[in-house]
Fold each of these.
Amino acid sequence: WLAALQARGITDLDKVHVEPWLAGINPPHMPTGRVIRAIAFLHEHPDDNYYARPIEGLTAYMDADSGEIIVEDHGIVPTPTEAADYAAQFQNEFRDDIKPLDIAQPEGPSFEIDGNLIRWQKWSMRVSLNAVEGLVIHDVRYQDGDRNRKVFHRMALSDMVVPYGDASPLHFWKHAFDAGETSLGHQANSLALGCDCLGEIVYLDAVMLQNNGEPRIIENAICTHEEDFGILWKHTNVFQPELPPEVRRSRRFVVSCVHTVGNYEYGFFWYFYQDGTIQLEVKLTGIIGASALHSGTDFETSPQVGPNVTSPIHQHLFCVRLDPALDGGTNSVIETNVEVDSEGAHPYGAGFRAVATPLTTEQQARRVIDPATSRTWKIINPNSHNAMGNPVGYKLVPPSTPTLLPPDESPAGRRGGFARHNLWVTHYDENEHYAGAGPFTNLHPGNRVGLPSYAAADRSVDDTDIVVWHTFGVTHVPRPEDWPVMPVEYVGFTMMPTGFFDQNPALDVPPSGHCSS
Ligand code: CU
C-alpha cells in the first residue's frame, strides 16, 4: 500500500483518506471471511473535499476476521489536483438577494404527538426508526365521519440496491444495499431546526442498539411538521361571475428522516394529504462517486463532471414494503391499464377504456411499469364497499422508473432480484421482511433469497392478508451540476384513495379566510 502510494508521489499519509466499503460479495482471492473493500482519496488540507482527488487504480481488501490485507494496483493515473469544495468556509461570495422567508404558526402546529402516536387532522399513525429499514410508519388510519378507518398496517423501505455500471477498478464491484447491509437507521442524522426542516417542528429521538450492546440515542432523528402545499382544489364559475371562486389551500403532514451513508445522503419524506393521498418522496443528495480522468476513461459509463473528475453511472433502486389493511380486512390487488377501445365501440373510433386485471398469485403479480397505458395497481378490500357498491381501494401510482440493469448472473443481479420488477405482491408472512439477500444481506451471494424467494412459492394473493412491494428509483447519469455536491434529486410514488371514500373527502377543509386581491 505504501509502495503504491509512493509510486504516485504520495508520501504524507496524513493526507490519505481511506474509505471502507462493503465488499458486496467475497472477491475470488478472498473467498471467505468478512471482507471490506477500501478505496482512497487525497486531502490537501484537513477540511477539504477529499472526494475531489480519488487515488485511481488502487484498492485494498481487508478480511476483518483474520486481519489479512490484499492490495491491488491497477496502474497509475495522475490524481486530480483541483479543489472542489462545497463547504461554506470555502465560498468566496454568497448571493445577496434572498429576503427572509419565515414560516409562522402562532397557534402552534395542527398535530399532536403522544409517545410515538401522531394525530393530524383526520390522520393518525405511529412512527419509529428501525435499524435496517429506517423510518417505519405504523397503523395508518383516517377518521371518516364516525368511522376510524385503517388504511395501512405498516409502511417502510425494505431494502435498496445501488449497482454501478462502470468497469473501472474503483467502482465495478459496487452494488451497495444501504438498508440491508449498511443499516440505514443507524445512519440517521440528528436534524437541525431551520436547516433540515422549517416551521413548527416536533422532533423525535431514536434509540439504536450498538454492536457492543449499548444503546445510542440519535437526537432529533425524525422530523414531523406540516407544510402548505399550494392548491388543494379550486373552481371558478365563469357563468356566474358574482360568485366568488372556491379555492382551498392544501396542507400536508410530513414525517421525515435523513441518512448519511458514506459519501451519499438519502432523505425519506412521507407525506399525508387532506384528500387521503399518501406519498413517499426520497431525496437523493450528497457527493457522487468520483474517478480521476485519464486517457482510458469511458465517458458513456463515467461522464466528466469536473476538470479532471468523472463519475460512474449507477442506479438507486428502493424497495418499499407496504402492508395494507384497507378497512382492516383482507385485500387484493388489481392492475389497471388504459387501452384503446375495440373498433365500433365509439362513434368516432376514438374510445379508450380502463381495463382492470386482478393479480391473484405471487408469480402473476410481478409487474413492471407502463407509462404508455397509465398503468396503476389498486389495492382493494373486496369485502368493504363504498356508496357505489364497489370495493374500497387505494391505487399505487408508480413514478417513471427503471428496473435493475445488471443481469441475473451478476453479483448485483443475484442479490438484488427485488429490483427486477416494480411491483410484487406476496402472501403475508411475519418472517418475510427483507427484499434483498434476506435478514443477513452482508456478503450473501444471493439467489433464492429475499423477495424473489418469497414470491417463488406462488401463493394466492387474492382476498387474503397481502404485502405489496414497490421497487422504484433512478438511473443516475452524473452531470457537472452534481459536482462537487449534488442538488437534491427526487423520486417517489403516490397512493391515492380510489373509491375508498364516497366523494372528495376534503370538502370540509375551510376557506383560508384571508384571501384578498
Ligand atoms: Cu446517484
Note: The radius of gyration is 25 Å.
Amino acid sequence: MNRNEVAAALSEIGTLLELLGENPFKTRAYGNAARLIKSMDQDLPTLVEKGELDSLKGIGKALAEKITLLVRDGRLPYLDELRARVPPGLLDWLRIPGLGPKKVRAIHLALGISTLGELEYACQENRLRDLDGFGQASQDKILPGIDRLRRNAGRFLQPVVQQEADRLLELVRGVPGVIRAEVAGSVRRRSETSKDIDIVVASPDPEPVMEQFAASDQVEEITGRGPTKCSVVLKSGPSADLRVVDELSFPFTVMYFTGSKDHNIAMRSRARAAGLKLNEYGLVPENGGDSLPCADEAAIYSALDLPYIEPELREDLGELEAGSQGELPALVSDSDICGILHCHSTWSDGSASIADMASACRERGYTYLGISDHSQAASYAGGLSPAQVLEQHEEIDRLNADLNGTFTILKGIEVDILADGKLDYPDEIMARFDLVVASVHSRFNLSEQDQTDRILKALDNPFVDILGHPTGRLLLAREPYALDLRTVVRAAAERNVAVEVNAHPSRLDLDWRELAVGLRHGLLTSINPDAHSPAGIDHVRHGVGIARKGWCTPEQALNAWPLPRLQDWLKERRTGR
Ligand code: DGT
Ligand code: CA
Ligand code: ZN
C-alpha cells in the first residue's frame, strides 16, 4: 500500500472504532496517525524498512506494527475484523450531512436499525424527533440527505471515468482488426459526472476486441456478453460498455451513443423533416433504400444541413438552431489557456512553494500564474495575516525579478467574503493585490435571500475581480448553498466581475448551464484550477470541458488572454475605483 492508502485505512479504523463505541483517545489516535502519514515528508517504505516508524510523534508500537503490515502486505487482519463487526449500512449513514459516527451509533443502538431504508422509515415515523440528542430539526435534515445519497449513487467524477476511458480506448485501439474506436456517452460530452463509460469500436471481427476488453486488468467483473457487445464493472467503480460495429455504421453508432438523448431526439426529428430516418446504424430515406454514406459525424451533420456540433454542446440547449444559423461559438480549448489563476502555495494550505508552482506552470507552457492564497478569516486553511501578505508580496517581487519577464507571477488573493458581505482585509491591504478572487467559505446555512445579498454586496466591492466557486457545491457530496444564482451571475456581468469556473473535479462550479446563460449576458469567466499542488494545475482541463459545455469562447475567459490583455483589464478595473 502507498501512503494515501495507508492513511485511508487508518482513518477507516478510527471511524469503525468510533462506530463500535471505543474510547475517544483510541479512535482519535488513528485519525491523527492518518493525517500524519498523509502529510509527512519522509518516505514511508523507508521508515518501515528501518523500523523507525515509532520515531514519529504520536505513533506508538501498536500503531507502528499495523502500519508495517499495511505497507508490506497491503492488508491488516485487525481492519478486516473491525469491518466484519460493523453493519455496512452504518457507513452509508455517515455520508449524510450532519451524521457523524457518534450520532450514527446512537441511532443504531436506540432504534436497532442499520440500513438506509430503515433510517428513512424511522424519520418518516418521527422516531428521530423523539430521540434524545436529536429532534425535529435534525430529523428534517436527514431525509433530503438520504435522497441525495440515492440520486448520486452509481455516478462518478471526471478524473475516474476519463482516465479509465482513455486506458480502455488505448487498449481496444491496439487490437488487430480495429479500424476506429471512440469514447461516447456522457464522458465524451464531458458531463460533470458519469454513470458509466461507453465505447464504440469499428472492426470486422468483434470477438478479439471483446476478448481483450474483458481481460483488461481494469475489469472487476464481466456482467454481460453478446455477439457484439460486452459489459463490465471496473475495479474503480464505474461500469463500461463496449459495442463493436462495422465501419459503415461506426459514425452513426458513435453519434447515437454520444447522445445526449435529447440531442438525439432533436436530430431525429430534423432528419424526419428532411424525409430521412436517423438511427444508430444509418441515415436512410424514409421510403426505403440504403443509408446515405457518411464517413464521419461531420458528414452526418452536414447531410442534415448542420455544421459539426462538438460533443460538449450536444445537450439540446439550442445547438441545432445555432448551428443551422451559423452561430455556433468557436469553443475555448486547452491550447487557448495562457495562464493559471487561483492557486494556493505553502503560504496557506498549498503543498508547494510559489516558486515551484510557477515552474510547474512554466513547464506546462503557461506564461503567468496568479497566486491566491487564503485570507485571514480562513484560519483553518492557514489564511494570511496582513503582515504575511506584505511578506508574500516581497517574495513575489524577488521571484519576478529573477524571472525577468520570461514568466510573471501575479499577486493574487482568495479573499473570504465575510458573513456580512464585507471582504476580509481593510482597503489599504486590498489595494495591494494585482488580482482578487472573492469566495464564500463559511456560513453556508444562510437563507437564500441573505446569501444572495451577501454575495451581491461583495460583487459591489470595487476590489473584487473574480467570484470564486460561486455555489460552494461539492459534486456527489455537498449541495450548493441556497442562492439566487441567476441574479448573482447577472449582477457579476453588469459589474464586469468575472465568475470563475472552478476546475477542481469535485466542484466544476460555476455550473455550465448557468455559465451559458451568463455568457449570453456579457459575463466573463476564468477557468481556475484552485490548485493546491503542481499536479492540481492539470485540473484546468476539467474546467475547460465545463467551459466548453457552457458555450465559452477564448474571448470570454480571462486566462485565455495573453498577459498584457489581462493586465489591461485589471488596470482598467482599478482606475475605476
Ligand atoms: P450517463 O451514462 O448517465 O452518465 O449518461 P449518458 O448520456 O452516457 O447515458 P447512457 O450511458 O445511458 O446512454 C448513452 C447514450 O445513448 C445517451 O447519451 C443517448 C443514447 N441513448 C440511450 N438511451 C436512449 C434512448 O432511449 N433514446 C435515445 N434517443 N437515445 C438513447
Ligand atoms: Ca454513459
Ligand atoms: Zn476557495
Note: The longest strand covers residues 408-416.
